[in-house]
Specification:
Layout: H1 3-19, E1 22-27, H2 33-45, E2 48-51, H3 55-62, E3 78-83, H4 88-99, E4 104-110, E5 113-115, H5 117-124, H6 129-170
Antiparallel strand pairs: 1-3, 1-4, 2-3, 4-5
């Protein structure tokens, strides 16, 4: 890799570290090509990314960033797992690591906050952005639904009473 290619990689990594909601670091030694491809596909489906890069280039890209302490985790054979949504990458990574022992999550960053394995697991238990949006939408729509039922209820009651009175007159 020549100097220009290294500069491009550092720029790309710098963008990842600066703009991602969460960046996780994991050891992936022992993963087969098909397992890495499966992980990449799972992450891509949820708008997340996977990036393998030399630790030295990653450390250069981290210099001056709010999450620069992330460089402590960059040793050995590492992979970066990241997403704009702070929860998506954590959910997928934790689930994948539970079924595949060769992916070992070692740390990460949530903005300026540095996470250990326990922090990543706790983060993965939170609802994702999409789940929160659907919950909020349901909450916003719920009062309108209840209100429409209450408004139409007296009319239904009056119609029911009228039918019973007519039946009694006819009898």
């Amino acid at each position: 890799m020549n100097r220009k290619q290294k500069e491009q990689v550092v720029d790309e990594l710098s963008h990842i570290f600066k703009n991602s909601g969460v960046v996780l670091v994991a050891h992936y030694s022992g993963l087969t090509v098909s397992e890495i491809s499966e992980l990449r596909n799972l992450m891509r489906e949820s708008n997340c990314g996977v990036r393998v890069a030399k630790n030295r280039l990653s450390k250069i890209a981290l210099e001056g960033k709010a999450n620069a302490k992330l460089s402590e985790f960059l040793n050995g054979q590492t992979v970066l797992l990241f997403s704009e949504d702070p929860v998506s990458a954590a959910k997928i990574s934790v689930k994948f690591s539970e079924t595949n022992e060769n992916l070992k999550l070692i740390g990460g960053s949530l903005g300026e906050e540095i996470l250990d394995l326990k922090g990543i697991i706790n983060l993965s238990k939170l609802p994702s952005r999409e789940e929160l949006i659907s919950e909020i939408t349901g909450m916003v729509g719920s009062p309108g639904s209840v209100l429409s039922q209450l408004v139409s209820s007296p009319g239904n009651n009056i119609a029911g009473i009228t039918v019973v009175l007519e039946e009694q007159k006819a009898a």
